[in-house]
Amino acid sequence: MEEAQWYVVHTYSGYENKVRDDIKKTVISRNMQDQIVDVMVPTRQTVETTASGARKTVETKMYPGYVFVKMIENEATWYLVRNTRGVTGFVGPGSDPTPLSPAEIHSLGIKVDTVHVDFAEGDLVVVVAGSFKDTKGVIRAVNESRQSITINVDMFGQEVPVELNFAEVRKL
Prior knowledge:
The protein has 172 residues and is α+β, with helices and mostly antiparallel strands.
């Protein structure tokens, strides 16, 4: 099986988080989690001074106008990402997406942390971040290499499998 690579997607400024969330939702609804593995907007913590002189820590986007997508490039994934509202195109020559090299990923400061957890099938978890926050579910599958679990979520009266990153859930 082909390995997923990181690609850069250009978006309208201010639409980065919306594009990320829309891609994630579409991936789940089309059951393409094995083809589009991760979508992220790199951020960093900065300290800002307010008008009153108070200092506060704010999360800012490292690359405004860009979203990073880890995917297996094929016609279906290209179409899904390219036709997401707010996306203007892939970074690369013409309409061809160009994957980032490991050196480029490192130089951009993108750190993909490996999380080690003791999740097992049958464990009860609660979602602590994302679209399904505060949802409880039983783990149906654990994917160590992708750092994700699959739980069933009740949507419109039907059980729907949802894949979540380890960082998005907490064991009960």
